[in-house]
Specification:
- The structure is a single chain.
- The protein is mainly α and 288 residues long.
- It is 79% helix and 0% strand.
- It has one domain.
- It contains twelve helices and no strands.
- The longest helix has 31 residues.
């Protein structure tokens, strides 16, 4: 029970950051915000620096690729969040669940259960219902969808390669690579952040939603089943919708909320199949 409760808190933190980030990037450049976010996360995980040596060249390379994908995913998601509602962004981000087994099928030719394909179909219908809802835009929702696809790719690659490496060292390299790439990209627009809105979002996303959330996730997943963990993670878009409604004033109307509900149904339907696919991906023999 403590492990599941901890995971619920993590998903709530992730949910509220949709509101905080949307407010922050309305007054501060996206690339600079994300660079500082991953810089703070890297500093938080810096005590694990010794563990990086144990990764070896292959581990550092795998972590660097994961970090590059992570940075790209956050850029796409945050640019999309600027252009659409918090609730829409939360539910569309959650589509990484239904996209994960599809990407595993494309990359590794793993068999995907019918429930996963049904989840993809449902989520696609929900996405179509959300398109053009007042308060959002098709371009913003497509950017968030692209981010969900990048997150799915990162999850598949991490499930395939990361279990052989130390998780803290691996994550520190991820954070550093994401920070480095974003820092270079942010040079033309960088400015010292000002105000509680930006600094509050930076601290919550950098410390709690990135570094500490990972540590809690690692601790909890050793104490509960992968299936339960995956089901708890489906709460993230629900929290995003709750905070979007209460804090950001999201009013999507019947069609928009119906689209969110259909996406959620697709996520819940596809989740067991996605977990099963990833489990087979880990067990599959690796090429020499």
């Amino acid at each position: 029970m403590p492990a599941l409760l901890a995971l619920v808190v993590v998903t709530a933190v992730w949910g509220v950051t949709f509101v905080q980030v949307k407010d922050a990037v309305a007054i501060y450049p996206v690339l600079a915000f994300l660079a500082l976010r991953f810089g703070i996360a890297s500093l938080t995980l810096a005590p694990a620096g010794r563990r990086v040596r144990g990764l070896g060249r292959s581990g550092v390379g795998a972590a660097a690729l994961a970090g590059a994908l992570l940075g790209l995913g956050y850029v796409l998601q945050t640019l999309g969040l600027q252009r659409t509602s918090v609730s829409s962004a939360g539910f569309i981000t959650g589509m990484y669940v239904v996209l994960t087994p599809v990407i595993a099928f494309v990359l590794f030719r793993l068999r995907v259960a019918a429930a996963a394909w049904a989840g993809v179909a449902l989520a696609t219908v929900g996405l179509a219902m959300l398109a053009g809802v007042h308060g959002g835009s098709v371009s913003g929702e497509l950017l968030v969808l692209a981010a969900a696809a990048v997150y799915s790719l990162q999850i598949v690659l991490m499930e395939r390669y990361a279990p052989r490496y130390d998780p803290l060292g691996f994550t520190l390299v991820e954070m550093l690579v994401a920070f480095g790439g974003l820092a270079v990209a942010a040079i033309p627009v960088f400015a010292v952040p000002r105000g509680a809105t930006v600094w509050g979002a930076l601290l919550v996303t950098g410390v709690f939603a990135s570094a500490l959330a990972f540590l809690v996730q690692t601790w909890a997943q050793r104490r509960t089943s992968a299936t339960r963990t995956a089901l708890v993670f489906t709460l993230e878009p629900v929290w995003a919708a709750i905070f979007g409604f209460t804090l950001a004033g999201d009013r999507l109307g019947a069609l928009g909320w119906g689209g969110c509900a259909v996406i959620m149904a697709g996520i819940v339907l596809a989740e067991p199949a996605a977990a099963s696919t990833l489990a087979r991906l880990v067990r599959r023999p690796r090429p020499a």
